[in-house]
Prior knowledge:
Largest sheet: 6 strands, mixed
Keywords: Cytoplasm, Hydrolase, RNA-binding, tRNA-binding
Family: Belongs to the DTD family.
Oligomer: single chain
CATH superfamily: D-tyrosyl-tRNA(Tyr) deacylase
Number of strands: 8
Structural class: alpha/beta
GO molecular function, one term: D-tyrosyl-tRNA(Tyr) deacylase activity
Organism: Ekhidna lutea
Amino acid sequence: MRAVIQRVISASVSIDSKVKSSIDTGVMILLGIEETDGQEDIEWLCRKISNMRIFPDDTGVMNKSILEVNGEALVVSQFTLHASTKKGNRPSYIKAAKPEIAIPLYEAFVAEMQTHLDSEIKTGEFGADMQISLVNDGPVTILVDTKNKE
């Protein structure tokens, strides 16, 4: 499971020119799920994200978590995070999970994040053509892969 985590001042996801979800201060999470991911990946990643100290304290040092700043989260599924570019110029998405595997894992990830943050998690729509708008704060953008825990 891969996640691109962006600290944002605001973020939104639109479908057919209509805003589906939006947040203010918090994190935009682009989530890539692969065939071998499971509940252990979900739990580890949610714990990592919710405790990640990427928000500034009173002195401007990144020393606070999303929990400590009462931030919001917007989670959007993005299979392209598992693109392989080793051969040719057209990325291969063979490692990305098929919808029958990815959708339940995506929904479980959102539910687990909700328990960690104790607030509603905003989402995109799995499989939809979405437009993402965000104001990256910092900029702070972090890539986390559950296959590289150590």
